[in-house]
Amino acid sequence: MNISSTQKLIISLIATIGIGSLGGIFTIAEIPTWYAGLNKPSFNPPNWLFGPVWTSLYTMMGIAFYLIWKQPETETRKKAIQLFIVQFVLNFFWSIIFFSLHSIGAALIEIIVMWFFILLTIIQFSKLSKPAAWLLVPYIAWVSFATLLTASIWKLN
Q1: Which residue, 3, 43, 91, 102, is most buried by CB atoms nearer than 10 A?
Q2: How much is the pTM?
Q3: Distance CA 20, CA 89 (A)
C-alpha cells in the first residue's frame, strides 16, 4: 500500500494526539481526588496548563514523526521510528503508573527511562532531519521539568 505524504502527516498527527490524549483517561478522574491530596512543590503548575502543553507537544511530536516517516527507507530511519515508538509507549504508560496505580516511585523511574529514550530519539532523528529533532526539544524540556516535578512529589509524599 502506497501512502501519500499528506496521508502520512494526517496519520502521524492523529496517532500522536489521539494516543497521547488517551493517557488523559487515566488522569482526569484522579486529579480532583488522589492528585489533589498529594503534597506538591511550590513550582507545581496549575492543572489547567497540562492539557494545552501536552496537546502542543503531541502535535510537534506528530510533525516530527512525519518528517522521519517520509524519509527514504533506511536502517537509520527504521531505528529512528523504533526509538520514537519506545519513548511514546513509555510516555503513554507513565500516566497509568502515576495516576492509576498511584506509584510515584515507579513513575519516577519510568520517566527517567523515557527521558533517555527521548534523547536517543532526538539524536537519531537529527541524522535524518534537523527540524524533526528540534521539534522534540520542547518535549524533552517539558519531560525534564516533569521528572523534577515527579521526584519532588515522590519526596514530599
Answers
A1: 91
A2: 0.95
A3: 9
